[in-house]
Amino acid sequence: MYGSVSVDGFVADENDRPGPLFEWLTGGDVPLDESGEIKVSQTSYDYTRPYWDRIGVTIAGRHVFDMTDGWGGEPPGGIAHVVVVTHRPPPEDWDPEAPFHFVDGVEAAVARAQELAGDRIVEVAAGDVGGQVLAAGLVDEVRMDVVPVVFGSGKRYFGSVDAQHLLEDPDVVIQGDRVLHLRFQVRR
């Protein structure tokens, strides 16, 4: 499970705007991808790029898919496939050849993502779907890019998780520019 988050645990405000949560992705001088638009500090690059290179599939919810207009049919960040958790069919004008897979339910989404990922990892986007995957016991690791901002309210990193879940002590704590990278293993 992965995402940028405010120090009070939000991935967006009440209106789905991430505000300054992604400023760390544009405030550096080291290009993180081929677009040249995403630039981070060297420290953030050294942590983030190897992780991004290992991602084969991202699992996201239909809400995120709709908000991003399906990333124009191209998975973000060089990822090979996106599995969209939804109860609805793809948009009517959706290209069936686009590497997006529409699946009903988080268990089915994880199974499909694991098939598609091969020897690469499956990333689950933070938010409601990420919280559902965590609650189902299907998350091994939680990665957070904690940004020094307080939202006060909004969309929670873990969605509406209704039970306690224990994480191990952080095994990675890296300070970048305007971001703190954290990684936790989920306690089993």
From TrEMBL:
Gene Ontology BP annotations: riboflavin biosynthetic process
GO molecular function list: 5-amino-6-(5-phosphoribosylamino)uracil reductase activity
Gene3D superfamilies for the chain: Dihydrofolate Reductase, subunit A
One Pfam family here: RibD_C
Domain Bacterial bifunctional deaminase-reductase C-terminal: start-end pairs: 82-165
Coiled coil: none
Protein name: Dihydrofolate reductase
